[in-house]
Amino acid sequence: MIRSAVTVSLVPEAKGGPFVFWEGLAHAFEQAESLGFDAVEIFAPGPDAVDRNELKSLVETHGRSVAAVGTGAGAVKHGLTLSSGDAAIREQAVEFVKSMIDFGAEFNAPAIIGSMQGRWGGQTDRTTAMSYLTDSLESLGDYAGTRDVPLIYEPLNRYETNLFNTIAEGVEVVESLSTSNVRLLADLFHMNIEEADVAEAIRVGGKHLAEIHFVDSNRWAAGYGHTNFDPIVAALKDIDFAGVIAVESFPKPDSMSAATKTIEAFRQYFGD
Ligand code: LER
Ligand code: MN
After folding, report:
1. How far apart are CA 244 and CA 254, in angstroms?
2. Which ligand is nearest to the Cα of residue 17, counting in written order?
3. End-to-end CA distance of the chain
4. What tens digit of pLDDT does each residue of 183-214 get?
5. Candidate of 11, 156, 185 to mutate for ligand 1, largest count of ligand atoms within 8 Å of Cβ
6. Number of other CB atoms surrounding residue 47 within 10 Å
7. Which helix H or strand E contains 212, and what residues bound it?
8. How far is the CA of 247 from the centre of ligand 2 (A)?
9. Is the full-model pTM beyond 0.85?
């Protein structure tokens, strides 16, 4: 079963970023219910920024689940990355992600490694940075397994990381690990920049794909850009995709329009 999700950011430092809602958890859950999204994906400053009891009660009251929790605030807010040349920073990055895995697991939601992957440069060469990242995916994947959730890894476009940019590279990474608990997130915005053929890349991702960031070419909601969604949706059906499809778009022209446009697109492409 595909689950639809809408994103909420609780991180003021990420203002201007590609998240639909910005007015707190209660607002996001209310809107998710009224529009018909199955779940909410949370981008939080850290594990302690969210009141667990409040979130539990929102999940119950609105009958929506938590799709996933983003870990990018570790990079945006705290300057941590898993591929940093500084061992102390890498260690803090791993601890931050573990704390986000623990938080998400309380809601059966996986953590996503996106911006936390970082980039190579300075004193750290490409091969070394890649091995720092894959080592941490290995250990964090195992750690997430002890909490009964997968760990989700998201390749990003070249302007956000110089490590792994395509779904094929992501597949290579997850298949090189001993753990089978690391799954992939395919973000259609990053793929629009990096992939020769987005639909074909979805097929390459195949069984490794746990989540899609569903968004148009310009990072506005589906329908506001020039992406042709038909072959992408056909590829998702071909691989029997049964994960989360989350709208991670700019709140443009405003949050409600972005959310409404996306739920209409979901209904058109995936039915109710
Ligand atoms: C960042 O560009 C992104 O796509 C997020 O999902 C990762 O933090
Ligand atoms: Mn994304």
Report:
1. 23
2. 1
3. 11
4. 999 999 999 999 999 999 999 999 999 999 99
5. 156
6. 19
7. strand 209-213
8. 9
9. yes
